[in-house]
Predict the structure.
Amino acid sequence: MSTVTKLNPAMSGKMKMMSFITTDAKPLYQGITNNTFILSVNAKASSTDQRIAAAFISFLAQSENAQAYAVGTSQHVSIINVDYSANVDLLNTSDIMGKKLLLAPRFLFNNVNNVRNPLEDALIAIAGGADVTKTLTDTSKTIKQGLSS
Amino acid sequence: MKTKGLSTFASLRAGVVALVATALVITPLAVAHAADAPTFGKACTTEGVSTGQATTSLICQTGSNGKLTWQRVRLGSTNARPVAASSAPDGTIEFHHWRPEDKVVLQGIIDKFESANPGTKINQVIMSSVDYTNLAYAKISANKKAAVFVTSRGGQFNQFYNGGLLADLSNQRFMKQNVIASALTPGTVNGKLYGLPYQSLFNNPLYNATLLHQLTLLQARLQSIQLEHSV
């Protein structure tokens, strides 16, 4: 969102997030979530340094500090008792956190080269107008060949 | 869905007041929420939706009568309230991450931490996201002073876990009492907590809600004009 408001400041306060629902039935998920900032303590650090590290993460997990981070960087956080009202864009889009979300499947493939990449290429081709059945049939062969080689 | 969060409606109302004072065009965003103000014990329509990520928030769940009602949300892994930060021993460590755009805000929090723990120092070591993806494991595994670091879900987190670099944080009370439990999944292996997924990103498209609201009003007006003329 901060990228959008940098490009067009007039968008501030007007943004919401959209769910792409492609079925008339009850949807399994309403959105995708992703975590790229998972805080950890280095198990190979000295015990004193590990205690400093854990204390620092516990400090980041205080609601007032998490709120300062969220509001200052325009990102939603996972900490309890955080209030987004100081950042109108976070406030207006925070209802996404109450929806059924799937952890980014694109980044959870175990085999990137032989499975994820051909599948992504197929989806891009289909979105670009390629024949669905032919594309998936060909991709299926490519994946099987890649896995058996 | 008991642990999902979104801003409190009290906050939303506070936000509305601020918004109305600055720009009337923003009102439609808040009106959508105000029409459905949740009240404890009252009926709700969308299961799993909650009013915020505060210990006082409500969540829409099926009650004992089988109907959807607003109930108290339990956000953490336990019912216990969030705990205060632990104190740190003296020393200096490095905090490795990949977000230069967050440097200033994080430094403000680090300054507060250092004031609360005189004798303790934390230095940010920041790489670009591409470099971090490719080099972080090699650099951190060879640097014991890199005592705090971040990883991304999936491959990178697994790489650090398999390399024995992730300390078990399961016994840290803040992990269970300060963090929304549902957010812990990407940092959990076999029920043990090895990381705190601090921020959440959403790969949903953004849209201009003000414009969409105006278009909806315009469409409704056009339809009513058409109806008037067809009578």
Q: What stands out?
A: Residues 112-148 of chain A form one domain. Chain A touches chain B through 80 residues (CB under 8 Å). DSSP finds six helices and five strands in chain A.
